[in-house]
Amino acid sequence: MTELIFEELAYAETPIGEVSLRRRTEPRVENTVVYEVKLDDEFLMSSLFTKGERALATLGLSKVQGDALDVVVGGLGLGYTALQVLQEERVRSLSVVEYLNPVIQWHEQGLVPLGPELCQDARCRFVQGDFFALAVDFEGGFDTDDAGRKFDAILLDIDHAPNHWLHGPNAHFYTHPGLTALSTHLNPRGIFAMWSNDAPDAAFLAVLESVFVDVQAEVVTFDNPYTGQKARCTIYSGRCYPNGGMTFGMRGSDQGFPL
């Protein structure tokens, strides 16, 4: 029988609220210890639900051609997307952009299970910054040491959904101008992919199709022990135009939504 655990491992105040890291046993799943990240009273990430985060990496990178891939992940969380990216031998470098510096520190201090492995992989580096601000920074971009650097894949897992944001100003990113700005940081035929806790959204798909080609919304199914049923999340993806850059005027810790 697993010893009952409930403890707060870390806590910090941030510009967007109080962030905390908790560890506890989960009585609904035998012999399971769960790590959770909360922002104020809202759950950001749980180690009980990671299939969608890992699918973001596998589905996104499966659409990228070539070797020596340079990848950006927006949102560190508990590290599941980042670690899944590093399982791909074709990946040359991974930049993980995280707004909340305490979350980066938890990984560096080994407070979360995947922290040591991520920190020991020479291909991986953490970038403390606002993903959405960097996405619209045409001259700088996601690499503070190499202004204007382009990437083969940009994978995003920060907000709950295109219309359910952690921070109100993030809303602008999910528009034609916001995604167009993001596309300038991709190599020709590079991939943008994004996790969403909600069902595929036709309006957002239309926005994606105004910027990218080969747009898809793939549903990932996983078990939800709280409901005893299956739940789903969505992975959106789109490919940058062959010439890369802007395409103005061209059209081409969540539990998932129930089945």
State the gist of this model.
Helices cover 21% and strands 35% of the residues. The protein is an alpha/beta fold and 259 residues long. The chain is globular.
Structure, described:
With 259 residues, the chain is an alpha/beta fold. It is 21% helix and 35% strand. It has seven helices and twelve strands. Strands 5, 6, 7, 8, 9, 10, 11 and 12 form an eight-stranded mixed β-sheet that branches. Strands 1-2-3-4 form a four-stranded antiparallel β-sheet, covered by helices on one side. A hairpin with a 7-residue loop joins strand 2 and strand 3. It is globular.
Key attributes of the depicted protein:
259 residues; alpha/beta; 8-stranded mixed sheet; 4-stranded antiparallel sheet
Tell me the number of strands: 12
Distance between the termini: 32 Å
Compute the CA-based radius of gyration: 18 Å
The percent range for strand residues is 35-45%
Q: What is the overall number of helices? A: 7
Q: Name the poorly predicted regions.
A: 246-253
Q: Please identify the oligomeric state.
A: single chain
* Shape category: globular
Task: Name the structural class.
Answer: alpha/beta
Biggest sheet record = 8 strands, mixed
Helix and strand succession? EEEEHEHEHHEHEHEHEEE
Would you tell me the overall average pLDDT?
90
Helical proportion, percent range: 10-25%
List the helices and strands and how they pair.
Elements: E1 6-14, E2 17-25, E3 33-39, E4 42-46, H1 51-62, E5 69-74, H2 80-86, E6 91-98, H3 101-108, H4 115-120, E7 124-128, H5 131-135, E8 151-156, H6 176-183, E9 186-196, H7 202-209, E10 213-224, E11 229-239, E12 257-258
Parallel strand pairs: 5-6, 5-8, 6-7, 8-9
Antiparallel strand pairs: 1-2, 2-3, 3-4, 9-11, 10-11, 11-12
Helix pairs in contact: 1-2
